[in-house]
Amino acid sequence: MQKKILAGLALMGSMVLAPLASASSLTLYSGRGEAMVQPIIQQFEKESGIKVNVRYGDTAQLAVLLQEEGARSPADVYWGQDAGAMGALSNAGLLAPLPESIYKDLPGIFTSKTGQWVAASGRSRVIAYSTERASEAEIPASIFDLTDAKYKGRIGYAPTNGGFQSFVTAMRVQHGDAKTLEWLKGLKANEPKVYRNNTTQVQAIGDGEIDFALVNNYYLPRFVAFNPEFPAKQAYFAKGDIGNLVNVAGIGVLKSSKNKAEAQKFVEYMLSPAAQQYFVSSVSEYPVVPGIIANPVMGELDDLLELAPEIDLDALADLEGTLKLLRDANML
Predict the structure, then answer these.
(1) Which residue spans within the chain are E strands per DSSP?
(2) Among 144, 173, 297, 322, whose CB has the most other CB atoms within 10 angstroms?
């Protein structure tokens, strides 16, 4: 499926990126999974003539590695799964400023205020629900409503998952630690079922273990792609609710890079129509530029932007504070 999509988009990519005159290369540290991004990296290599040497790993671990390596790092580009990791590298002074032309036309929700990194694709938090055991009328208006007794024992969540932890960080940014801790304790008192990640939560809905799950938007579409009759849907909370957090996969050029021209071309390509359509069609993420054909399960980008809360993505870097709150709520 990915090969067909990439073949159909090759012409779009060639209009965006011209190969360099001579052979060149760059080193990418990727917190994005190999199966997820390797096809579009290979397409970039084909269109640009630039060889990409990739080191795959956990987003947070690679961010820590970059801080340890400092100016000695061989990396030219860092591609993180989470805005918090991008903010941490920016705060550490490891990212180079990007040309304003790369990000000036992107929606504000997809841009870093530092100008040192840019969103390559977006994803949102949603509430997934069983179409067999939950009605649309039961979907809460706010994520804070999930402490209500009517949801007791019916909710799934993944407290050790990076997506959930980033969401809690965003709740702290918008509502403060005290209110966030109160919500965490109220959710815990409602006896939610604990899962290791988003995939297992969605599967649990299908298996009848839970009726609701707090997940990222792109997991259910993957289940539906294999089984159009999968008994679940997903929805957003009310406009502006922190439960609708939009997070991003961010990408930036290292200040220590010795191949900045090649690195910037890589960043630019990931914002091209070819790459953006790939993220939507193959990865089930949201595009960060307009004019991309929507994934029918996910809906339109404009609808997401209308519902999303306004959050400074650079402010999601304080993971330690979030882990402390989760421990205080006996979730870790």
Answers:
(1) 24-30, 50-56, 77-80, 118-130, 155-157, 193-194, 212-216, 232-235, 246-253
(2) 322
Q: In whole angstroms, give the CA distance from residue 206 to residue 202.
A: 7
Q: Are residues 239 and 284 in the same domain?
A: no
Q: Which residues of the chain have pLDDT under 70?
A: 1-23
pLDDT in tens, 54-112: 999 988 889 999 999 999 999 999 999 888 889 889 989 999 999 999 988 888 778 78
Is 218 labelled a binding residue?
yes
Is 195 assigned a ligand-binding role in the annotation? no
Residue 292 lies in domain:
2-122+247-303
Output the domain CATH number for residue 98.
3.40.190.10
Whole-angstrom distance, CA of residue 144 vs CA of residue 167: 13
**66 burial via Cβ count (<10 Å: 0-12, 13-18, 19+):** buried
Question: What does the pLDDT look like over 132-158, one tens digit per residue?
Answer: 999 989 999 999 999 999 999 999 999
> Quick one: 241 and 252 in the same domain?
no
Q: Confirm whether 308 is domain-assigned.
A: no
